[in-house]
Write a structure and sequence with these properties.
- The chain is of the alpha+beta class.
- The protein contains three helices and six strands.
- The protein has one domain: Alpha-Beta Plaits, CATH 3.30.70.120.
- The strands form two sheets. A four-stranded antiparallel sheet has the order 2-5-1-6, covered by helices on one side. A two-stranded antiparallel sheet has the order 3-4.
- The longest helix is centred in the C-terminal third of the chain and has 15 residues.
- The relative contact order is 0.30.
């Protein structure tokens, strides 16, 4: 299937879809997944990642020696949705992932200019 080479010229970039990326604590994943299901999300990508933010890791003691763990395990959830659903998805993630403590994570919302479903050749909102 040839891609629509004029698609970007005929659309306002990011005007129809959003990619929502959430970096959360691993123990909150089940809560977030349930909240996203309740919000109508039908698909997501989950990746186990490591990183740090303001938290800057933590100190642990192993066999009497203290050492610093400066990258911590996190879960990254990626969801692509139509613009009209993106706010509800972000709110669902925020509510389900929040503990009120440092290290709760971040949510990023990015514009998506095009999307394609490989199996059916559907594009944009139909592919999501």
């Amino acid at each position: 299937m040839p891609l629509n080479n004029g698609a970007l010229q005929n659309k306002e970039i990011g005007n129809h879809m959003k990619k929502i990326e959430a970096i959360i604590q691993p123990f909150k994943f089940d809560d977030v997944k349930e909240a996203l299901t309740q919000a109508g999300v039908e698909g997501m990508t989950i990746t186990e990642v490591k990183g740090f933010g303001r938290q800057k890791g933590h100190k642990e003691i192993y066999r009497g020696s203290e050492y610093t763990v400066d990258v911590l395990p996190k879960v990254k959830i990626e969801v692509v949705s139509t613009d009209d659903k993106s706010e509800a998805i972000v709110k669902a993630i925020m509510a389900a992932a929040k503990t009120g403590k440092i290290g709760d994570g971040k949510v990023f919302v990015l514009p998506v200019s095009e999307a394609y479903r490989i199996r059916t050749d559907e594009s944009d909102e139909k592919a999501v």
